[in-house]
Amino acid sequence: QSLKIGLIPADGIGKEVIPAAKRVLEALGSDIPKPEFVSLLAGWEVFTREGYALPDETVEALKECDGALFGAVSSPSRRVTGYSSPIVQLRKELDLYANVRPVTSVAANPGDKPDVDLVVVRENTECLYVKQEQLTLTESGREARATRLITERASRRIGKMAFEIALGRPRQQVTIIHKSNVLSVTDGLFRETIRAVPKLSEVNGKYDSVKVEEQIVDSAVYRLFREPEIYDVLVAPNLYGDILSDAAAALVGSLGLVPSVNAGDNFVMGEPVHGSAPDIEGKGIANPLAAIRSAALMLRFQGYTAGADRIDRAVDQVIREGEVLTPDLGGKSKTQEVLDAVLKKL
Ligand code: NAI
Ligand code: MG
Fold first, then answer.
1. Nearest of 26, 54, 50 to residue 40 by alpha carbon
2. Does ligand 1 lie within 6 Å of residue 75's CB atom?
3. pLDDT in tens, 233-250
């Protein structure tokens, strides 16, 4: 038995950090089935060369894989004819309906409780991101409208994912993020559907131990910065989740530390939260820890908890000791040196 992993480094520092994550997976030995890697293309660079950002071969090859790791894409900020973000398209093609982003600070001593230890579970397929926008010309000037879609089906499945994640954590708490005091129809449906998840007959009481809280999105951001320790699992519609998960990442220092996965019922793709970082590309100083933690998170979703725990412990040790760190964390080390330090701890 082997574990087939698609590797899509894509652009910029994606090409520097994904190989590091690969090395860590190879070093796990018997904690996981022998990994087998398939290198795949996507991104801006392949678009400029071949005219498409997500080649069909990449999607087809991924369907034969047990999971994947994605680096980062350099998306142009202007509109480019024919270009659309491969990550958005991949989420659609593989039905990766959840974006899951754990944000955890490293405690000063092993065994201590970290100050920040939360997971943002973001619905990944609807809300304002259905991208139905219209511009009309009226007597008083231009008018722009956007459609916001919230369905019971998508809210229920993201809710189940959030409860499932909470069940595996010591505090077992889910906070529903919404603005149903203003958007009572759309956010109202989201809130109500998630509240009803523990009572679903097919769930069979499985989530009864999980505590359910809720918070209006603006006050959630305020409290996230004042007292992040109150949160465990936050579940949010697409737009609020997008903003909250970047905000939460700011609580732990560097983008170079924060992992994520895009998950569906049949596939999981790890992806560091950061972008392609053109300002440091090619210098060999990109922090590989977000990508390495993304590999661990992918394994966690695949059920390889022991392997995931081992990687996370090694990463935490390297950060705690503070001797081998890249410049984004105030250190002087190179990507390769940080990777070597992690491999040594493993
Ligand atoms: P960015 O995340 O690439 O960089 C922001 C800042 O953080 C830069 O100063 C960068 O050097 C630093 N940084 C990021 N990751 C780091 C790492 N691993 N180690 C050390 N320093 C790190 O975001 P930015 O600059 O806004 O976007 C650059 C490009 O990346 C754009 O083309 C953007 O569209 C794309 N991007 C792609 C994402 C994705 O693929 N999911 C997410 C965010 C941006
Ligand atoms: Mg974002």
1. 54
2. yes
3. 999 999 999 999 889 988
